[in-house]
Each structure stands twice: as C-alpha cells, then as structure tokens.
TrEMBL record:
One of its GO terms (molecular function) is methyltransferase activity. It comes from Kaistia dalseonensis. This is Ribosomal protein L3 glutamine methyltransferase. Residues 139-221 form the Methyltransferase small domain. Its EC number is 2.1.1.298. Keywords: Methyltransferase, Ribonucleoprotein, Ribosomal protein, S-adenosyl-L-methionine, Transferase. The keyword Methyltransferase applies. InterPro entries: DNA_methylase_N6_adenine_CS (IPR002052), HemK-like (IPR004556), Ribosome_uL3_MTase (IPR017127), SAM-dependent_MTases_sf (IPR029063), Small_mtfrase_dom (IPR007848). One of its GO terms (cellular component) is ribosome. It comes from the Bacteria.
Length: 306
C-alpha cells in the first residue's frame, strides 16, 4: 500500500502553495467577499499573510522555497479554510482596509466597508466635487456600529484635527476595537462607548457621523454562505428589509450633528426603499469602484440639525 504524502512535503514554493490553494478553494466551492472576490485573491492573501509577507507584493516571492515549518503552517491554513469555511481574515487574524491593517477575530465582522474607500477619495477634501472641503474643519467624528474600530481609525488618519467617538452594542466587539486603537496608538483621540446607537453619548454633537450599520435583509440572512455564519449575526441582520437600524439612525442623527456637518451611511441594496419612505430627504448617493447606490450622504441641515 502506497503511503500518502502530505501536501507540506510535496509543495516547496510560494507558487506551489498558491496553485494548490486555488485548486482546493475552487473544488470546495468556497464563498468569497471578506476583502477579496476570487479564489486566487483569497489564496494569495492567505499565503502572503500566513508568511508575514507584504500582501501587495506577490510576484517577488513566487519562486521562494519555504522552510519545513512554513510549509506545514500554510498547509494547515489551507486545510482550515476548506474544512471550517472560516473567512481567511479570521484564520490569519488580520484584515486590511485601504492598506491599513487591523486585528480581527470572530467577535467582529471582517471590516470591508465602502466608507473606507470614500474617506480616502476626493469626496473628502477633493479639488472638484467634495462634501467636506476643508478636512481640518472636522473636529469631532462619530463612528456608529464601529465593530473592529476600522472606520474610526481610518477617520483619525484622514481628519487629523478630530477627536473621535466610536460606539458599538457588543462589548466583545469593543474589546477588538480596543486592540486596534491601541495598536495604532490612537487611544488619546478615539473614545470607545458601549451602547445602542446614540444612547451612550449623552446628547453630544459631531461635525461628521460615519456608520456602516447592520443592513442585511431577512431573505439574505437565511441564505448566507457558511463563511458569513462565522460572523456575529447581530452585526449583519437588521429586520425584514435590512433597514430597521438605518431608520433609527435617520430619526436621531440630526440631533447629534453640528450645522455644516453630515451623515455618511452604508446601506447595501435598500436605496429604492429609503427614497420612497423619505421623499423629503436629499440623499446624495456616492459610488465607489465596486458599489453603486449603496452609500449615501445627508447634510446636517437636511436631517433637521439646528
């Protein structure tokens, strides 16, 4: 009887493991969407992050021969990705938004908001179209439903004069957010609050509110691929049409905005519903490279701030 040879003993280079991972992922019918959209991108991320290599520099390392313990580590990660269906960021405990690294585990959803791309675009501080012309004018920012703290940390990078509050209902999520705030040395600028949306803020007002709240509708929640079932359900679902929490934010945001400020909110696929329900709100829909009509801007004035 022929003895089976383990993958770690047959695969020698980064290229070998990349090819093997793509084949295994495709064969297993894995789902993607936690920062990547294809089996190749997921495999490249797993291999590079698993080896602590730059995640945007695959080519220089493709033919690098790996040490025995490195091969065993990658083989175990690939096997875990296939058998547990955990998203790769959970397996390597790392996610990136706009190239910025964040610690993640199953206490938070994997950060992947379109708001990150918009913060780093001309929408804020651009020469032509922009919702905020002078970035230095933003002195207070609120990140609602902060999760891992990623949006709050990105906002701190963009708005260098701003003090930032970040709120989440989950104490476990806030534990992860604290890790990231400390890792990025922003504890003096980012304050974390546990509570339900605006409830723990005691009437505070902000120049800018950012939020990527739960917005998955019930039909989609019932059909989630296994990868998404590893994420906290409370961070995904929001009622029958996915907009229950968004409605609450719209009802309360005006009382927490300074004049001249505004609300940036990601909602997924509910644009037509919101526009029909709130005909008097002047929604400005901001598209990104991978989204259309999924993020809106509302000025403080349109939300009734005074």
């Amino acid at each position: 009887m022929t003895k089976e040879i383990a993958p770690a003993d047959q695969l020698l280079t980064v290229r070998d493991f990349l090819r093997y991972a793509v084949s295994r992922f495709n064969s297993a019918g894995l789902a993607f969407g936690h920062g990547v959209s294809t089996a190749l991108d997921d495999a490249a991320y797993l291999v590079l992050e698993g080896l602590k290599l730059p995640i945007d520099q695959l080519e220089p390392f493709l033919d690098a021969r790996l040490l025995a313990d490195e091969r065993q580590h990658l083989a175990a990660l690939i096997e875990a990705r296939v058998t547990t269906r955990k998203p790769t960021p959970y397996l390597v405990k790392r996610a990136y938004v706009q190239g910025v690294p964040f610690y993640v585990d199953e206490r938070v959803i994997v950060p992947r908001s379109f708001i990150g791309e918009l913060l780093y675009s001309d929408v804020f501080g651009g020469d032509d179209f922009t919702v905020i012309e002078d970035l230095s004018s933003i002195e207070t920012v609120l990140d609602l439903c902060t999760g891992s703290g990623a949006i709050a940390i990105l906002a701190a990078n963009v708005f260098e004069n701003a003090e930032i509050d970040a709120v989440d209902l989950s104490p476990e999520a806030l534990d992860v957010a604290r890790i990231n705030v400390d890792d990025h040395k922003l504890a003096d600028r980012i304050e974390l609050y546990e509570g339900d949306l605006f409830a723990p803020l005691d009437g505070k007002r902000y120049d800018l509110i950012l939020t990527n709240p739960p917005y998955v509708d019930q039909v989609a929640m019932d059909e989630l691929p296994p990868e998404y079932l590893h994420e906290p359900a409370m961070a995904l679902g929001s009622g029958l049409d996915g907009l229950d929490i968004v409605r609450r934010i719209l009802a309360e945001a005006g009382a927490h905005l300074n004049l001249g400020g505004g609300l940036l909110c990601e909602i997924g696929t509910g644009r037509e519903i919101l526009e029909a329900e709130y005909p008097d709100l002047d929604f400005l829909w901001l598209d990104t490279a991978e989204s259309e009509g999924e993020v809106f801007w509302l000025s403080a004035e349109s939300l009734g701030a005074s």
